[in-house]
Amino acid sequence: MQRTSKSERNTEGPLKLRDAALQLGISFPTIKQWIYKKRIRSVQTAGGHHRIPQGEVDRLLFRTRGKTEQQRKEQVRRVSGRNQLVGRIDSVQISGLMAEVKISIGGQQITSIITAHSAREMQLRKGQTAAALIKATEVMILRV
User: Fold this and answer.
1) What is the pTM of this model?
2) CB 3.0-4.6 Å disulfide test: which of 1, 102, 118, 142 passes with 131?
3) pLDDT value at position 12?
4) Is the dihedral of CA 46, 57, 105, 91 positive or negative?
5) pLDDT digits (tens, 9 = 90+) for 83-99
6) SS3 92
7) Helix 17-24 × helix 28-36 angle, to 10°
């Protein structure tokens, strides 16, 4: 059985602003400005607090990983493959020598089978941001 942290358990419902900002790689003040400028959709709790739906984070995830296109390439793409899809890890199931990693990307799901050693080495966990690198018939996981 795999233990999950409190922040990993809350990946299904709307996110607190700090959690959404962390996933997007932006600051707390930036996400507040995005809400005010209607760049990102939020819902308000009964107490008036903003929450960000996970779908909104997924929609903006790839666009915000790095401030410019060049910085994004330097941060994410350190391999020659060009077909990289950035998303959120939905599940990591390790069994014996293999691990099944499911990544949600824009409402779609990509599944990859990798070695258990690789999954442990990258410390892949539900809720983390990751990229699926697609090369011919293979899908590799790259933690970002």
Assistant:
1) 0.49
2) 142
3) 62
4) negative
5) 778 889 999 999 999 99
6) strand
7) 100
